[in-house]
Amino acid sequence: IAKVRLKWVKNRSLDHIIDVQTDVKAACLLKDAISRSPASYLTAKTLSDTQKLLGLTVPTLRFIRRYPSLFEEYPHPRYPSLPCFKLTQLGETIQEIEKKIHQDSEADAVERLCRVLMMTKSRMLPLHSLHPLKWDLGLPDDYATGLIRNHPNHFRVVKGTHGSNCLRLVDWSEEFSVSTLQKMNEKEEDAHEGYRDFKRGKAALQFPMSFPRGYGSRNKVKAWMEEFQKLPYISPYEDSQGIDPSSDLMEKRVVGVLHEFLFLTIHKKTKRNYLRSLREELNLPHRFTRIFTRYPGIFYLSLKCKTTTVALREGYQRGRLVDPHPIARYRDKLLWVMRNGLIYRDKAKEMLLPQNVDDYLPADDDDDDLEEEIPDEESYDSESEPDSD
């Protein structure tokens, strides 16, 4: 395949989504931390060093005070000068709704987690590598003590080679070993014949691509992508030990693994550093993150919030998730509550304390009101390639 160096292109719509969801994620993590606390509150001293952990660009105390509809500030019972934060009545109600959604989606979470483990070489992952991904994968906060223990036929916690606790897959499931790309081709009626050719080994599956403005007219890029699409498709659930790490075939296999992993996330995105921590287990080559800028029709790198996030382009259309998961819909509604609390400040408590919180949440049909209309792409030659976080 010709080595074409492509410039990074800024997508303002996806950047906006990542920026907004950073706040939603931080609010969820704070809610979970307060719920886990034996005293049901957290002190300002405890929160003072959590800004980086939460992925915030502002101090945690400033952030938590922005949302009085979720978090209530009051003086410490013994030390009046020490601020404390607990969940409001509305926050507790929302926390119960979130638990119910996770319970209803448990089977889906089990499948999602099984697929991640099935893509690894040893069929297991260290829990410390999996823990940062729990929000992206839609796992409940107590997945290590709840979800895993409830499904001993799927998961087992074992000691790894370095003495760390690892989550191991118990049984291989043939049903789960069909990749998302294969499923999409099975469903496409107009591509049915092409998929039969793929099953016979006569054709290769092609990745959906959506190029930034300007790339589509470049003949060199077109020729490169056509050659790439003709390469055999290797399922991320197949053994890749025998493939030459420097070959074009391995490059397409890496694209397939990253494509599948991002599809398993709730919002079709995750932080680049999270993927780096899984490099060895997913059998990815060194500096594999260059793939993201080599294939801008498949992936998008965002530099928002002082970090690098990779998103799957086909997961979004006009700034919205194409097929939102129930957890994603819940998080959109949480964003609505957060925004109203920010607008109305002290009055938010009275305005957002219904017997049933759904009375004040927007209906699914009104989800478009949650996002602003933002231009999608910049010109393809306006930015340079991002190299590091």
UniProtKB/TrEMBL annotation:
Record-level Gene Ontology MF annotations: RNA binding
Region annotation (Disordered) ranges: 358-389
InterPro entries in alphabetical order: PORR_domain, PORR_fam
Domain PORR: 9-341
Start-end of Acidic residues biased regions: 361-389
Pfam families referenced in this protein's UniProt entry, alphabetically: PORR
Protein name: PORR domain-containing protein
Organism taxonomic ancestry: Eukaryota, Viridiplantae, Streptophyta, Embryophyta, Tracheophyta
